Amino acid sequence: MDKIKKVIVPVDFTSTIDKVADYAASMADMMGAQVVFFHVVNDFRGYDMLLVHPSFAVIKQEMKDKTEKKMVELVEKYQYLKGGVSGKVVIGKAAEEIVVFAAKEKADMIIIGTRGIKGLEEFLMGSTAKQVVNTASCPVLTFNPFGLNK
Questions:
Q1: pTM exceeds 0.90, yes or no
Q2: Cα separation of 128 and 112, whole Å?
Q3: DSSP class of residue 80?
Q4: Fewest CB within a 10 Å sphere: which of 18, 77, 100, 125?
Q5: Which CATH superfamily is 6-147 part of?
Q6: Percentage of the chain lying above the pLDDT 70 cut
């Protein structure tokens, strides 16, 4: 098995961010791997016909700017990692952007939390983690942050 040198960790800055980041950072640190936290600001594709106001592009950019500030704080928190840490924020569709970014970065692994959606919501929207597992070109480790006892 090849050494895992770079791990992409998609984060969504919801209430589970600490569990997701801590778990992934711990796993990557045990392997001596670099951690790249990655966030995708929804581009609302498909909704733009409903939101035709010119400020739509401004709103997306403002969301990206705010998220980049959160990313800087997240990266600073994990500066102690042996393999290094960085962060990236993009605008797009989450699963697609995660897979493309991981391939571009030649990631050895993606560590992604699940949200635990079920039923109609999962059927209608799908699971980002599931889509990443099905389309990524590298191994994907998934975990349920709601199941961690911390």
A1: no
A2: 9
A3: T
A4: 125
A5: HUPs (3.40.50.620)
A6: 83
